[in-house]
Each structure stands twice: as C-alpha cells, then as structure tokens.
Amino acid sequence: MNKSKCRIQLGWFEGTILLVVSGSSCRHIAEEMAEILNCEHHSLEARRFPDSEGYFRVPESSINKIRSNTVILVSNTFPDSCIVETLMLLEAIIDVRQGNLADIRGKGIDCEPIGPGIFLAIPYFGYSRQDKRFNQGEAVSARAIGMLLSSKCDGITVLDLHAPEVLEKLPVKISFASSMSEIATYLQSEINPDFILSPDKGAIERASFVAETIGCKFSYLEKTRIDAHTIVHKAKDLDVNGAIVTIVDDMISTGGTICRASEALREQGAKAVYAACSHGLFTGGAISKLDQFVDGIIASDSLKNPRSVVSSASALCRGINELIEK
Ligand code: R5P
Q: Which of 32, 240, 272, 297 has the fewest CB atoms within 10 Å, i.e. is most exposed?
C-alpha cells in the first residue's frame, strides 16, 4: 500500500480533538485515518448472533472518549448487513453522547447530553447505482439510504460516489472524496500508462483527472448496458496502437465493462491493458474473468479484495476536513 503519499495538511484538525472509530467493515482504513489525523482509533463492538442479527456496542473503555471528542465513524454500507451495522453504531454513539449510560442492571449513571460532533466516512456507499427512478415505481435506494444515515450524524463524506448528485440535497453536510489522485500516483510509478480510457461517459471526470495528473492521452467509450451481464460498446477509433492503456472506472463489479473495453483496445493495437477502480466489488468470479482480458487490476482498499493496492484513508481524511470546514 502506498502510504508515503498519504500525509495531508492537518488544516482544520489542528487543535481539534478527534476520535476515529470503526465496527467490522473498515477497521484497516479507520486505523490508517487515525494515524494520518494523529488521533486515537477505537474499535466498536460489532458481532453476529447465531440467527445473523447484529449486536453493536460502544465498549465501556471508549465511552469517555466518545463523549469528549469529535467522532468519525468509518463504515461501509455494503453488503446490506453493513447498512444496519452503520445505523446501529451511529445509534450507540448518539446514545452515549446523549448521556444515556444507565443499563437495566443498574450499572452506569445517566449524565448530561453533549453537543453535535458525529461524522461518518463511507469508503464504499452500497446502492449508489440505484440513483434514479429508472422505471416507474422503483425506490431511489441511494437517496433512501442517504436519508437514513443523515438522521443519525452531523455530516457524511463518501469516497468516489457513482453519481454525487443523488446525495447533494441531504439534510446534513456532505462532501465527496476521491482516491483518484492516489490511483494516478500509483499508476504513474508502477505502470506508467501512455493512455487512459474511460469505459463510459459516467467515468469521464474521474478518468480524465487521472490522465491529466499523469500527463498522458485520454479518451472514452460509449457504453450501452443490455442487462447486468451484457455490455455493448459503440465502435470508436482510439489512438492506442502500441500503447500501454489503463481503463479507469469508479467500480468494477462483474468485470463485463472492463472486459469489453479491453477487447476494443486490443483490436486497435494496445500493447498492454490495465484496469483501475476505486471500488473492487469483483462479483461472481470477476477477477479470474478479468485476468483473461487485462494485464493487471488496481483497486483502492474501500472494499477488501485481492487487488487493493491503493489506500483510501488519505482521501477520506480530505473529505472529513472539507466537511468540517463547510
Ligand atoms: C457503471 O456505470 C459503473 O461506473 C461501472 O462501469 C459498472 O458498475 C461496472 O460494472 P461491471 O463490472 O459489472 O460491468
């Protein structure tokens, strides 16, 4: 993991006492964020009952710190169980900060509530692609989850959200973090691409930023998704003969988008093709499929996967910084 580029100016955080906490989903990122922010990391209790329901608790040893510091919970909303976990951890943190400390056994004494100061950092926001009512009667799931989370915290930062517009009108402060500069740095030092390709119009902003940062050529494809497993790219002449190309996207799920884009690049003479993304979901054997089409896969650590080589901690710290400064 390329931690050397992770340091950020502490900015707003100078003089502010922060505490980074996590449950079961993002401990590795939370620990690194605490290191960058020069503050403590505490693990919250998150485990499963035999019937799969969750149990969540602020450990006794963390209660004072949760009440006296600005708290940053780092938690994913993927898979579904992590949505419940994130909401319940926020609930437990709120309860502690409200001073609701007496339990049914008579242990602990209720005390004064303290003010706002709970922020949520989400490395991978699940349901981000259901960001519109594509068909009549559908739930706009991304917005629904955003609303649930915003009822339990004072601000949210999200890493490389598929379409940020869907969360722009939440009732709490929101900031959009991106790991694309860390991905660009990694690509430049490890792959040195001549050409960056966006596999569809939706990834143009991210991919062109990577191309500009590296200082190489850029283009995009026009993609039509027939169904979850079938992708068609419109034919387009790309100046990739003999080039090392990296396809940059926000996420890779089944790998279909990358495999089809790679085929188009090879047909036009690309010498090597790599794929880079923030969120490596890699569903249904995607990695072995991708290995037949690309020379390498680069992902951030927003989700645990065998190709995560770029840290998302620094980007999320920038997101929290922006949020608090707003
Ligand atoms: C969609 O527009 C996203 O940016 C990704 O391109 C897409 O989710 C990738 O999915 P898959 O790997 O299944 O093609």
A: 272
